[in-house]
Amino acid sequence: MKKLISAGCSFSETTLYKTWPLHLIKNLPEYELISKGIPCQGNGLIARSVIWEVSNQLSLGVQPENIIVGVEWSGVNRHEVYVN
């Protein structure tokens, strides 16, 4: 199976609105969408979630040529802060 991995902040989140990953997947019917878009996330978390998901799909046997990654980077002023 071919995979489209999308990531980003709220502009990439797919459960509430018809954002760009949902429009893109309409034109790629042979692909399965894996959305990593989460509101309010910074670029560090966006990058780590994409790297993790690509590694996960490769470990599941998906061939690299069957993976497309689309990223909508967040603003440079967004940073992750660990709160306990």
Description of the molecule:
The chain is of the alpha/beta class and 84 residues long. It is built from two helices and three strands, in the order βαβαβ. The chain has helices at 20-26, 43-59; strands at 2-8, 31-35, 67-72. Strands 2-1-3 form a three-stranded parallel β-sheet, with helices on both faces. Strand 1, helix 1 (20-26) and strand 2 form a beta-alpha-beta unit. The N and C termini lie far apart (39 Å). The relative contact order is 0.29.
Q: What percentage of the residues does DSSP assign to strands (E)? A: 15-25%
Q: What's the helical proportion of residues?
A: 25-40%
The whole-angstrom Rg is 13 Å
- Strands, total number: 3
Mean pLDDT: 90
What is the molecular shape?
globular
Concise summary:
The chain has 84 residues and is an alpha/beta fold. It contains 2 helices and 3 strands; from the N terminus they run E-H-E-H-E.
Q: Secondary structure elements and their pairing?
A:
Blueprint: E1 2-8, H1 20-26, E2 31-35, H2 43-59, E3 67-72
Parallel strand pairs: 1-2, 1-3
